[in-house]
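Agenda item 2: D-xylitol-5-phosphate complex prediction
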Amino acid sequence: MKPYLIAPSILSANFTKLGEEVDNVLAAGADVVHFDVMDNHYVPNLTIGPLVCKALRKHGVTADIDVHLMVQPVDDMIKQFADAGASYISFHPEASQHVDRSLQLIIDSGCKPGLVFNPATPLQYLDHVMHKLHHILLMSVNPGFGGQSFIPQSLEKLKQARALIEQSGFDIRLEIDGGVKVDNIRAIAEAGADMFVAGSAIFDQADYQAVIRQMRSELALAK
Ligand code: DX5
Ligand code: ZN
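Presented output:
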């Protein structure tokens, strides 16, 4: 297994001072910036686009930016986010007419491609694309909002996804998104995740470093 990565979701950050929030959470020990893009079409909420990603780069953020596209259609946003400085780009397979083509577009743009699975989306979408994936993102809440509760069935799905990754022989990260907290992160790691998105668990607390430290201590106990 690769080293665990903690990816705070800036959806729960204070948007009136986003640059500072991102600087602070990275200084507090976060590895990657998780960037939730919602279009009020694929999901019933509206967030931020490529302009904000570009602004973070201009502000001086050098950490990887993990763009999670909850948009439909997908392909034009891939190009725009690659130009805006995204590092990882993932999308929901149901939102793309041509999943292989969208993945290739991410690769050709120089970014790391991922596929995202809603709680009820079957893992079969992986069958013919494992060789193209840098990461698999399992949603442990329905997409659209921060601050929801972790859906417990996601643990079983993580185990299945981990087994598929192992069978494939490819080096693919397994990312979890939704309701990740200090008190469940260890069980989530034990089910097979190695990258953890956490929005409200981090940004709703005053001391980001304390939360990230607690998460890492829990992860150190994972078997
Ligand atoms: C939900 C987003 C998540 C969300 C996670 O659609 O993809 O990244 O911000 O927030 P928490 O950690 O609060 O569940
Ligand atoms: Zn997300």
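Discussion summary: The longest strand covers residues 32-38.
Owner for follow-up: CH.
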